[in-house]
Amino acid sequence: MRAKYVMSEVFLGLWRNISMTVAMIITMAVSLTMLGAGLLLYNQVDVIEEYYQTNLEVVIYLERDISQEQIDQIESDLLSNDLVAQVQFESQEEAWKRFQDTFEESPDLVASVDPSVLPPAFRVKLKDINDADQLIAEYAEREGVSQATNQKEILQQVFDILGGAQRLTLIVALVQGVAALMLVANTIQVAAYSRRREVAIMKLVGAPNWFVQAPFVLEAVFAGVIGALFAFGTLVASKIFVIDGQFEDLFQLMPPVEWNSVLLLLPILAAISAVISAVTAWITLRFNIRV
Amino acid sequence: MIQLEGVTKHYPRSNRPSVEDVNVHIDKGEFVFFIGPTGAGKSTIIKLLLREEVPDKGKVVVNDKDVTKLRRWKVPAYRRTIGCVFQDFRLLPNRTAAENVAFALEVIGKPRSVARRVVPEVLELVGLGGKEHRYPHELSGGEQQRVAVARAFVNRPLIMLADEPTGNLDPDTSIEIMRLLDRISRTGTTIVMVTHDSNIVNQMRRRVIEIENGQVIRDQARGVYG
């Protein structure tokens, strides 16, 4: 009986104030979409890091005129090094083959490169890629070595871009979130005003405080959950049409954004949104409906 | 039953009437008028009894409990022991007479079966039998006040507070409402009524407490308006 009364008041309240309700839901949806995107990026950085951690190598490029003895010497030194897990020699011919594979789709580029300019190299897998600098320091200046590079440094730029995007989404989420919460507070005030007769009578006859407050808090929670559903819909659509659709090629360079992590956002966003909306409504009521 | 001990309440930031060192004792089942000019502090006493306000100094003891020390979450339970009617009736316009009365039961969690049984009884008691399904705008002022009295009484409160209940009614209707309150008083309910309707006070010949500038200047059993 009471539950029915509370629910009918919730929907009546939202309907009576429909333009504000819509504004509240839209703002929340935008905020939560950004929050969801930020969380996905955060997760994605971890996934990429883990993925490359096991595949990253230090590449030691050799002089083209290096002698076979020098090569053998470097190889045996590398193999006896404690940091090193695996060593693979790549001759000029192999380097040329790899180059052709990498730029398979750009025959002009391949044609313009003379196979003899590609240096032979050692591709070294480390036990821990974070020790790369130490190894590079040891080998970079050695005779017969032209250059030693750490692939992680190249990847670092990708991380920087992702990190920047993540910060941007979180800032937008925060700003929109503040706007959304102000709209919640505003909506609750208007609702409290339009229901002031009922509220006054309820307090007079001794309805418990939670009961007086319930319709308002639930209004905010309802709007919050609807906002979360819209945000989730937007994120799912982005996954289908952007990540797996139009920009599929781009995203194939890195490990995919998993469906699992997208789906996990629904309960997370809904819970965050519901709790924060409820708390905002409740605090607003403490100032508007005094006992 | 009701005891005001040295009750003082000021409103420093508004010109609402304050009360100053009010000492009043009211027994169970008494019928008491608070009279005095507008702005004397009569309604402030009602607010203190309802615990809408807390005094700056002094104690408000109702049913052996110091209301001023009541925790916030216990206030609703306290208010269920009190019925209250006002000059402006305070009915919900979109609910019928019966629904208005039932509302008071619903919101404190009484099952619907109780409302179905009790509401017609109490509407009959206040003389509105047959008009249960009328909306407030279809009722006269006196009838609306009867609905308000029914709502205040439906939980069988120990105390009934009435803040100028006849203020919006013509003399004949006022007398009918007073008869109704008198009948409720005889069930053992303590009645505290604020008024400046001299006719009513003079006809009823009950205890009169006169307030002026927030202070009790007269407390007389079977008094007149003066």
SSE blueprint and pairings:
The complex is a heterodimer of chains A (291) and B (226).
Chain A: H1 2-16, H2 18-53, E1 58-62, H3 68-79, E2 84-90, H4 92-102, H5 107-112, E3 121-126, H6 132-140, E4 145-150, H7 151-194, H8 196-205, H9 209-246, H10 248-251, H11 259-288
Helix pairs in contact in A: 1-9, 2-7, 2-9, 2-11, 7-9, 7-11, 9-11
Chain B: E1 2-9, E2 19-26, E3 31-35, H1 42-50, E4 57-62, E5 65-66, H2 75-79, E6 82-86, H3 97-106, H4 112-125, H5 141-153, E7 159-163, H6 171-185, E8 190-194, H7 198-204, E9 207-212, E10 215-220
Parallel strand pairs in B: 3-8, 3-9, 6-7, 7-8
Antiparallel strand pairs in B: 1-2, 1-4, 4-5, 9-10
Describe the structure.
The complex is a heterodimer of chains A (291) and B (226). Chain A has 291 residues and is of the alpha+beta class. Helices cover 74% and strands 8% of the residues of chain A. In chain A, helix 2 packs across helix 9 (209-246) and helix 7 runs parallel beside helix 11. The relative contact order of chain A is 0.17. Chain B is of the alpha/beta class and 226 residues long. Chain B has two domains: 1-81 and 157-226, P-loop containing nucleotide triphosphate hydrolases (Rossmann fold); 92-156, no CATH class. Helix content of chain B is 32%, strand content 25%. Chain B is built from seven helices and ten strands. In chain B, helix 3 (97-106) packs across helix 4 and helix 3 runs parallel beside helix 5 (141-153). The radius of gyration of chain B is 17 Å and the shape is globular. The mean pLDDT of chain B is 93. At the A-B interface, helix 8 of A face helix 2 and helix 3 of B.
Order of helices and strands of chain B: EEEHEEHEHHHEHEHEE
* Termini separation of chain A: 24 Å
Question: What kind of sheet is the major sheet of chain B?
Answer: 6 strands, mixed
Largest sheet composition of chain A: 4 strands, antiparallel
> Helix/strand-derived class of chain B?
alpha/beta
The CATH class designation of the largest domain in chain B is Alpha Beta
Output the number of helix runs of chain A: 11
- In CATH terms, the superfamily of the largest domain in chain B is P-loop containing nucleotide triphosphate hydrolases
Please state the average pLDDT score of chain A: 85
Helix content of chain B: 25-40%
Number of domains of chain B: 2
- CATH architecture name of the largest domain in chain B: 3-Layer(aba) Sandwich
Shape of chain B: globular
Spatial extent as radius of gyration of chain A: 30 Å
* End-to-end CA span of chain B: 27 Å
Q: How many individual helices of chain B?
A: 7
Shape of chain A: elongated
Q: Describe the oligomeric state of these chains in a short phrase.
A: heterodimer
Number of E-state strands of chain B: 10
List the chains of the largest interface with their residue counts.
Answer: A-B, 17 and 23 residues
